[in-house]
Amino acid sequence: MTYEEYQRGQMFFDAQDYAEAGRILAPVVEAEPENRAAVELLGRAYFHSAQLGRAERTFRRLIELDPANGWAHEALGRTLERRGRAREALPYRKLARAMGTDPADEAAISVSAANLAG
């Protein structure tokens, strides 16, 4: 991944062009699948562009990379809820709460884990 491509994806995300951000970030994550910042931003872009299957897979990957990331558990829970799978979402949201992450509504997925850590 070039840092420039990640920044470009962030720019499109910030401009609320989530589909384009996802298109830019997908190859970045493919090239660097361990890059948590890129995986997170890609998941957020998919969530906001209603690509919920992709968002779910991406947030699951983020949890694999960082199991102690409460925000990732919350984001996955919200994604599952949007997909009509509230029962499946519940354990992820409860775990996020136990990790100290505040409950998120759909708009809160715009806030990154880095923002919540500060």
TrEMBL record:
The keyword Cell wall biogenesis/degradation does not apply. PROSITE patterns: TPR (PS50005). This is Tetratricopeptide repeat protein. Keywords: TPR repeat. TPR repeats lie at residues 36-69. Gene3D superfamilies: Tetratricopeptide repeat domain (1.25.40.10). InterPro entries: TPR-like_helical_dom_sf, TPR_rpt. It comes from Actinoallomurus acaciae. The keyword Nucleus does not apply.
